[in-house]
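Could you help me review a protein record that somebody else here produced? Here is the record exactly as it was handed to me:
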Amino acid sequence: QVQLVESGGGSVQAGGSLTLSCAASGLTYRTYSMAWFRQAPGKQREGVAVVDSGARTRYVDSVKGRFTISKDSAKTTLYLQMNSLKPEDTAMYYCAAGSRAPLSLVAGYFDWWGQGTQVTVSS
């Protein structure tokens, strides 16, 4: 049984930083792509960053240079370091795992999802 559990969300002021974590269990960690998505109220779920089994990464343009995705294979943990946060980064952030499209940021290619962690950035 695959389980993804996010943590690390919270409230920060604009310009601040947060690090999200996602503890993964029940999957062959090294053969899956892992990604972070976010969804703000009234908006569609958006792919933020993805890392594949070869540690290649891809980011949505709005977070390039500010967010960094990484994974600790030994601990099966995925991270999202978020710097220079903006109010428009406010959303529920979800961890996801899948194997159908290695560097996709399309939600439909991911099979497993966490419950989400809220990030709120105030101006």
